[in-house]
Amino acid sequence: MASYSDRAGSGEYARATAAPYLRRVWLDRALVPDWEAYPYCLPIFREEFDLSFDTAITIVVGENGTGKSTILEGIASLAGFDDAGGGKGYRPVDHSNAREIMGGELSAALRAGWVPKITNGWYFRAETFFSVARYLDEVSDRPPDFLSYSHGEGFLRFFEERCQKQGIFIFDEPESALSPARRMEFLKLLHRMDSSRNCQVIMATHAPMLMAYPNARLLRLTKYGLEPVTVEETDHYRVMREFCNDPRGFVEAALGE
């Protein structure tokens, strides 16, 4: 069995090794500058933070404010991506329309185990998608013109063009720009990436449809840490099931609370 390694693998070794490439991420507590400052004050970091990846696709679910996006930002920084979205070698994304970004600070205290280290790939954020798409349209010799499509169509075309090669791909709530039908198309894209065996996907989502991807490892993030979960055990699924069983009654009850 290959051991964890921080070294960059040769191209031949990388091609011969199937995803996942990032096998482990953990917080080196000796490197935390201030436990009272964000993001280290988050409950997830109070105890030992140690996240292992044993499948090509890992999906993290949880309520807003638990730290899902911050963890993804930190992982993106470790992979050499801009923590506001983008890929290695691209100019930094315009942060002006995004919430505060803390991934770079978190990554300074994170350690990673790679087999081998992969820096190809992309970090997708709905908040900064148009900044990235505009940049790609500007610098391309034959502009893909992502911005001429609807938001959902632009997202899917963007994903299709970026997810054909070996790499690590990080998605932060991709469903925010996708209708239910487009989410089904995104599931098919995940399946193609998974079947290729050379793409690692780490995703945060609130969408039960995406959580149900059959080959994924599904983890729930709470103030107590990360734990394996089934889609049926998530609050997102339970709420959606109650709504589907009685849409009008569900809405009336919610408005009456």
TrEMBL record:
Subcellular location: Cell membrane
Domain of life: Bacteria
GO terms for MF: ATP binding; ATP hydrolysis activity
Keyword Lyase: no
Domain AAA+ ATPase: 54-228
Xref: SMART domains: AAA
GO terms (BP aspect): double-strand break repair; iron ion transport
Pfam families: AAA_21, AAA_23
Keywords: ATP-binding, Cell membrane, Ion transport, Iron, Iron transport, Membrane, Nucleotide-binding, Transport
CC annotations in GO: plasma membrane
Name of the protein this chain belongs to: ATP-binding protein
Lipid bilayer topology: Peripheral membrane protein
